[in-house]
Design goal:
By secondary structure, the protein is α/β, with parallel strands linked by helices. 41% of the residues lie in helices and 18% in strands. The chain has a domain of 204 residues: 3-Layer(aba) Sandwich (Rossmann fold). It contains 13 helices and nine strands. A hairpin with a 2-residue loop joins β1 and β2. The longest helix is centred in the middle third of the chain and has 16 residues.
Length: 295
Amino acid sequence: MSTRPYTSVWNDLNQVEFSQGFLQAGQYRTRYLHAGDESKPLLLFLHGITGHAEAYVRNLQAHAEHFNVYAIDFIGHGYSSKPDHPLEIPHYIDQVTAVLDTLGADSAHFSGESLGGWVTARLAQTHPHRVQRIVLNTMGGTMANPKVMERLYTLSMEAAKDPSWDRVKARLEWLMADPTMVTDDLIRTRQAIFEQPDWLKAAESNMALQDLETRKRNMISDDDLRAIETEALVVWTTKDPSGPVDEGRRIADLIPNGRLAVMEECGHWPQYEDTPTFNKLHLDFLLNGHGGETS
């Protein structure tokens, strides 16, 4: 039995001045967690595939001291709109730019994990005027490893078809270097999302990027990375299940103003697994452009 202290989403938020709500962003009803003063620079946190805004509950307080922070649920995820079609990167770009428009913001800082990093990189490439500094956290979209894709698809769809405690737990444990990080509270938070009547269809839509042909037409190429002009911090981990540190270094080297930060003993959710380290390197970069190895 683990001796790790019990934690919960509420424990992570109970000293944070935050709000939860919905934005009508274009055609998409978008759920968010918000913290920070609206007079400060805007920062959007973007989660990974089958994830939700709670991926960032441990980061809101530290970042709200300096930023107007929104962690959103992507379409097809969490409690946001669930479009009835396969979801590809341009669909997520449409949602994110609509969120900026609804908030009255020309641009923002972006920090994206996994799928969120994929969307952030594409946004920076295709809409450079809408991004400031970006953080690409164990980003997706540069690799197409059939074994990783199949594992992710299987775990996700099994939990969608049968959102039992054990299946949701297994899906969350894929994210963590230390599976004891997956608490009962985190399981129940995600289980409630997976229990929504429309979740199975939503999961089929958001798993579209695990199909090889669909993935290929959405992937971030080397030339796409070279075209990113903004300052970018690539965060990778020593135990990421999606790919090795060398992939993070390759991405950072290709982005002209890229730099790499490697977090030890973390998996695919370093912002949650080692919050103090993540928050420090993240804020050092977003506020000052410091941190990591420059390319």
